[in-house]
């Protein structure tokens, strides 16, 4: 009987495991994760679940793994891939043979140089991180957030809902400088300011000191920010050590081809830990940290572990929730030559990004609730279809994007 | 069997291959018009998180949730895979004299 092993029991690993069964694989499936919990969704950790103090939102209940005959090993870390012996080794010395191996090891928060996560310095990646942070989010407490990316900003919104005072420190001149147009970032920053979040942009940290009962940040400007907790949200680094030690190619993530194969034909990689070539953008190699990408790649890796030959071609897609606003982005906007704005109503709008040749390469939208969702989804399909739409038509609210797709 | 037929809207208030939200006595529904001009109804909220499906996109016989793209067949209520795994409840619909009714 064939043995398929998945290292990393996150969104991606769990989806891959179920997809193997759904596609008719009859051998053994072992899903291994170093966390104590069954695979759970990470996006809620900075959003409503953090506010509600909810338990982990599981990708699937335990009974579904049993029904699908997926052996889930939680709280077990894989420390080595023995490629010559086609087996993996656990931290306790145990070994498990594989016929095909999927690496879905995800990413971990980048640490601020010179500091460690623990005590009054935290990062937000796991359910346990969220629980620890939440304990500090009470009326009257002050939290400092380092990094104005999605996680830092979502956390700021949640912290305000719980009544904590928030100072957010960003080293660059504006928040959300990675992948989000300035026009949208500005709306986000204004909303946070209106909700009472103090945002310090262009602020560099000169030192961090943990004192009894507080943590003190000294900025290069000389300003001192003291808080009950510092949450570091300055990005994530892919978990590539296993792959690297096994001699697999790693370039900003475990390097795979379009079919998610590593440089070893028996080993695949998918999700946040992986860099892959994107045909829509000239085969440029990227690494995404996106929930839908983790799902899609998990499912595709499963199909290809079973002999499939399909290449990953999905349009990158991401969302973020802050207060009552949702932001959605489809495609990659860097490299845009022209941007066209379309009003969606209720103050919501979408920016369409076209390259120098007039091809639609990305769309970014923001608005209350889910008002931008439908148009972003259609934009995503237009991007996949590599269309060269008339900018005036895109801008006109009366143009039905569905019609452009049919054209 | 449905006990009562409740009036929803005029048939032409829903575009072809589209959906609207319909709230009735504290509950919320999604009412669809298919590309073949048939009408259908499901519970209004996604089974993943409680999000109004009527903000989503209808493609053929599928409604896609606006939040994380979970998909359902709106004729049968069937969840079409991750991230949704629980089916939607469906309701009978009839069109009489140019008016759409849902059977509750
Ligand atoms: C707070 C937060 C909010 C987010 N919000 C959004 C959002 O709004 N929208 C969006 O699109 N995306 C969001 N994301 C990103 C999304 O959650 C990730 O893209 C997704 O979780 C990636 O899934 P993955 O399975 O590739 O990796 P992960 O979820 O990181 O899972 C990898 C798992 O592998 C385990 N592992 C690693 N190495 C080993 C080993 N050697 N042995 C055993 N186990 C191992 C890890 O412990 C981990 O449990 C958010 C992420 C966070 C942290
Ligand atoms: S709320 Fe519908 S897919 Fe998540």
From TrEMBL, chain A:
Residues 317-405 form the Reductase C-terminal domain. SUPFAM superfamilies: FAD/NAD(P)-binding domain, FAD/NAD-linked reductases, dimerisation (C-terminal) domain. Pfam families: Pyr_redox_2, Reductase_C. Gene3D superfamilies: 3.30.390.30, FAD/NAD(P)-binding domain. Residues 4-298 form the FAD/NAD(P)-binding domain. Keywords: FAD, Flavoprotein, Oxidoreductase. One of its GO terms (molecular function) is oxidoreductase activity, acting on NAD(P)H. This is Ferredoxin reductase. InterPro entries: FAD-oxidoreductase/Apoptosis, FAD/NAD-bd_sf, FAD/NAD-binding_dom, FAD/NAD-linked_Rdtase_dimer_sf, Reductase_C. GO terms for cellular component: cytoplasm. Signal peptide: none annotated.
From TrEMBL, chain B:
Residues 5-102 form the Rieske domain. InterPro entries: MocE_2FeS, Rieske_2Fe-2S, Rieske_2Fe-2S_sf. Its cofactor is [2Fe-2S] cluster. Keywords: 2Fe-2S, Iron, Iron-sulfur, Metal-binding. GO terms for molecular function: 2 iron, 2 sulfur cluster binding; metal ion binding. It holds the Pfam family Rieske. CDD domains: Rieske_RO_ferredoxin. SUPFAM superfamilies: ISP domain (SSF50022). NCBIfam families: MocE_fam_FeS. Belongs to the bacterial ring-hydroxylating dioxygenase ferredoxin component family. This is Rieske 2Fe-2S domain-containing protein.
